[in-house]
């Protein structure tokens, strides 16, 4: 997508939209503080679903566990935006700006992520290149846990998606409301409705043969055993599990639609399988409201980061882009009722280390895509001058919860923002307004 097209919607900007602008970048290049300038938003498709029980989009949360380097996802194109400083800081890892795919006049996308450009061109991909956990912790485990729980400090023992589900009206268990795939995700921890499955093909009661006859018999026996007509919590949870078993076992199996091809080799193989199964459940309209998954491609590249074509980071980014592009193509018009958000616990250091890698940093790039997303670059670009670098890392200017708050309010119709994001003080100034209101 050309830089002209990326900035061609000046007439349709919502008043509070926080798009990264050229003026903000150039002004920020010589200033300590970040600058915010309202920029255009993109049109989108209003929510539409034939699932009467769902009041908002289906949310798919993908956690990029390991600390993905955001400065190689969205990178400056010229000296005014910081390209010269990045080249000095990363003499062997830096991407030649001429190889970047322009997103606007100042920033470009990693050349191995070209598969995302049709989504960008459609105006349904938002990138937030200075987002992250607001506090300074650089421990994988600690930050992942807090972000999964929707916090900036402390612990609550439940996930933000679980609390969203518990605080959003649903008339009762009529389908598979929520799932963690391919294993339990902490963002779903504590949910009374979420199920964990490795694969839709193997989702069954352990200890029984996985065939239609035994499955039906097992479910009938469990209903009788649990007395699902009762009103206690255990019976309600059993009823949810039985409904999930019924729904998944009876959902029609179908190959990816619209000519979508997921990676079948390399680092994208396993994540591609999971995303294809999530897409299959969405297309089958089984009642999904939320899915939590992860993409562990090996982002923790303290060494062996590699070049921008065959290096490990480049191959990881290519796999991620290919999986996301296949998922969007597979869903087709169903993406109008889906919002996908990708986040990571932190980015990597600004300067490369002696092992030709990058260590634990601060800000990284968040992704949001879907039919209800105003595409573009969002947030305050902090600049790469010495006074703007936070302990050898890109400074966080966008609290990851600001992105979640936009999605929760505008796309998910959450019932209680304070319960879903406890401790987060929501103000208009923090909002990016990257999501269209449900309509």
Largest sheet: 9 strands, mixed
Q: Please provide the count of β strands.
A: 12
- Compute the number of helices: 12
Q: Quickly name the level 1 CATH class of the largest domain.
A: Alpha Beta
Query: What sort of overall outline do the alpha carbons produce when their principal axes are compared?
Result: globular
Structural class: alpha/beta
CATH architecture of the largest domain: 3-Layer(aba) Sandwich
Cα radius of gyration in angstroms? 22 Å
What is the H-and-E element order? HHEEHEEHEHHEEHHHEHEEEEHH
Instruction: Report the average pLDDT across residues.
Output: 84
Low-confidence stretches: 1-13, 30-50, 204-214
Strand percentage lies at: 5-15%
Question: What fold name stands as the CATH topology of the largest domain?
Answer: Alkaline Phosphatase, subunit A
How many domains? 2
What proportion of the residues is helical, as a percent range? 25-40%
What's a quick, concise take on this entry?
The chain has 439 residues and is of the alpha/beta class. It contains 12 helices and 12 strands. Strands 1, 5, 6, 7, 8, 9, 10, 11 and 12 form a 9-stranded mixed beta sheet that branches. It has a 3-stranded antiparallel beta sheet with strand order 2-4-3, with no helix packed on it.
């Amino acid at each position: 997508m050309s830089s002209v097209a990326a900035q061609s919607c000046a007439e349709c900007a919502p008043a509070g939209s926080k798009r990264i602008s050229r003026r903000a970048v150039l002004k920020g290049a010589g200033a300590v503080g970040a600058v915010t300038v309202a920029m255009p938003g993109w049109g989108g498709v209003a929510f539409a679903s034939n699932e009467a029980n769902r009041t908002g989009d289906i949310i798919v949360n993908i956690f990029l566990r390991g600390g993905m380097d955001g400065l190689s996802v969205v990178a400056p194109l010229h000296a005014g935006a910081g390209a010269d400083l990045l080249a000095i800081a990363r003499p062997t890892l830096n991407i030649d700006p001429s190889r970047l795919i322009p997103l606007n006049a100042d920033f470009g996308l990693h050349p191995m992520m070209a598969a995302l450009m049709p989504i960008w061109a459609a105006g349904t991909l938002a990138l937030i290149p200075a987002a992250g956990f607001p506090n300074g912790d650089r421990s994988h485990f600690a930050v992942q846990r807090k972000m999964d729980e929707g916090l900036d400090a402390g612990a609550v023992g439940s996930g933000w998606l679980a609390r969203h589900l518990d605080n959003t009206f649903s008339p009762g268990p009529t389908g598979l409301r929520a799932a963690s795939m391919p294993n339990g995700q902490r963002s779903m921890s504590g949910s009374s409705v979420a199920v964990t499955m490795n694969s839709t093909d193997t989702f069954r009661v352990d200890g029984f043969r996985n065939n239609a006859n035994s499955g039906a018999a097992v479910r009938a026996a469990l209903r009788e055993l649990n007395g699902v007509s009762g009103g206690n919590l255990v019976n309600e949870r059993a009823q949810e599990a039985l409904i999930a078993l019924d729904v998944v076992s009876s959902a029609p199996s179908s190959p990816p639609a619209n000519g979508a091809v997921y990676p079948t080799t390399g680092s994208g193989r396993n994540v591609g399988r999971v995303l294809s199964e999530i897409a299959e459940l969405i297309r089958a309209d089984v009642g999904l409201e939320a899915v939590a998954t992860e993409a562990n491609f090996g982002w923790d590249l303290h060494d062996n980061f590699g070049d921008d074509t065959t290096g490990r980071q480049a191959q990881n980014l290519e796999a991620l882009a290919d999986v996301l592009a296949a998922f969007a193509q597979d869903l087709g018009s169903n993406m109008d009722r889906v919002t996908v958000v990708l986040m990571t616990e932190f980015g990597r250091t600004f300067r490369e280390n002696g092992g030709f890698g990058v260590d634990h940093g601060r800000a990284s790039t968040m992704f949001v895509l879907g039919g209800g997303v105003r595409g573009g670059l969002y947030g305050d670009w902090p600049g790469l001058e010495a006074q703007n670098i936070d302990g050898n890392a890109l400074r966080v200017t966008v609290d990851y919860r600001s992105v979640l708050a936009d999605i929760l309010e505008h796309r998910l119709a959450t019932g209680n923002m304070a319960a879903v994001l406890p401790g987060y003080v929501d103000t208009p100034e923090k909002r990016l307004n990257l999501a269209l209101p449900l309509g």
